[in-house]
Write a structure and sequence with these properties.
7 helices, Beta-Lactamase
Length: about 180
């Protein structure tokens, strides 16, 4: 994954738990201040305040992720860990609960994803997912810059290293952050 920089990439489970990521991904999604906090794409999409999310086309992404989760859930019906995760998501987000209730189903696909960063308000990418056969139920997601401006911005962000700037509202929201503890 590190060889893919400046393309952000991560490895996720079917439940969207983030298992690994590269430096480019970390520039968009800095690790949580509390290392005990769960790293999960769904949790991020449904509990991160809109003013400081790294995802510009937030609503589109939420629907796609929930539909993909529903497809994966079909392979885990009755699994207490999955049932508990879905119940916790429903409790954490009424939007998630409403989307889950629609019962839409989708498979991971290539789609446009627009990120934002405190230094770059629009980073346009195309996501592509690859199954990780050595670890069933996981996939690597790579976000390929859709234009030269995005590629150059990602190169500059990675070259700058850590710590990355955060949105101005970060401290306010961090103080009230929902800690989503696994069951």
């Amino acid at each position: 994954m590190d060889q893919l920089v400046p393309m952000p990439a991560n490895v996720v489970t079917e439940r969207f738990d983030i298992l690994a990521w590269n430096a480019a991904y970390a520039t968009l999604f800095p690790p949580p201040a509390d290392p005990r906090q769960e790293r999960n794409s769904l949790l991020y999409c449904f509990t991160q305040p809109a003013c400081c999310t790294a995802i510009e086309n937030h609503a589109d992404q939420q629907a796609a992720l929930v539909a993909q989760l529903r497809a994966a859930y079909g392979r885990h019906v009755g699994d207490p860990a999955w049932t508990g995760f879905i119940r916790r998501m429903e409790a954490a987000s009424p939007e998630f609960a409403a989307m889950w209730a629609t019962q839409d189903v989708a498979q991971p696909a290539s789609y446009a994803k627009v990120f934002r960063h405190p230094l770059y308000p629009r980073l346009v990418t195309t996501s592509t997912s690859f199954a990780v056969h050595a670890a069933p139920g996981t996939r690597m997601v790579v976000y390929v810059p859709a234009d030269d401006a995005t590629r150059q911005a990602m190169e500059r962000l990675v070259a700058a290293g850590s710590p990355q700037p955060r949105f101005p509202c970060f401290q306010t929201h961090q103080a009230r952050a929902l800690v989503f503890q696994p069951a």
